[in-house]
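ok trying this again, last paste got cut off
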Amino acid sequence: MRGIYSFPDDENKPRTARKWAEKGFLVKDGAEGEVMYSNRNFSTATYYFREDVYAASNEELTAYRQKERQKKNDRTRIKRQIERERIEKEISPMLRFLAMHRNSKDALTIAVRKAVKDAIREFKMDNGSSPLFSYFNLHHLLSMTDELTPVLSDAIVIDTETTGLSTLDGAEILQLSIINQDGEILFNEYFKPMFAESWEVAMRINHITPEMVANKPHIYERMQEIHAILRGTKCVIGYNTAFDLRMLEAFGLDIADTVTVVDVMRLFTPVRGIWNEQFGSYERQSLQKCAQYYHYDWGNDTAHDSLADCRATLFCYRKTTGLPF
């Protein structure tokens, strides 16, 4: 395919129909022109040669310009309609949430309603230029509720199952489990996401379907209980712990600055000792590989269930460190 920039810039240079019209010419009926690269970024357009056009009358040029303006207006109208439909589709889960909880007197729900309304307003003001979840802010939600009585523990093990791989992409928690240093269950719950309606890629891994969580609570409904556990521990253990903590922090749930954070993945990686020359570091190992290395018996548990992963993580932590918890 030829590029328009390869032609001499003279009266015989091929032009688009619009450019010819600016010079007083219109394309002849039946002229096909030639599709060419319009710039060096490989954009294309149809160009017509001098023999493809004729000198038009003022009446013909006026009619052509009116027709082109109408086409432009139609394209703009369609584009705006598509944008409106996209925005409405994005906010539809939030509108359903507002409708379902419009009469709630619960302090947390009231705070979430405000966060939802603020997010929708800002999302519309920006014409949906960023994902809706990026406008949704619950970081100060717990400050609007009563002080909590911490659930005291020496250490907890946490794990989450999510709709995606990053909070920056709007990933939400589908399941959260927390056990203490003795393996006792402190928390185990499935959650209905605030935004996501499907998560095909994640579902192939964690097997959590939209139907499984359709009638589950939103995470904010259990935030006080979760926060009490996080604020009452001295140590948080996990496998790729930073990911789980980031997921919780996205909803304003965090740990005290004095809490020790342990990542069993970082402890196990040099134990397994597979060196990657390209990156100059040991290769990360999954929890399943770590559990296999230490001959962990999953029993009736299944990997990628957050409670099962908590139990496996605690076992691997003890094997890796030789510590009781």
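PB: full thing came through this time. The chain is about 40% helix and 15% strand.
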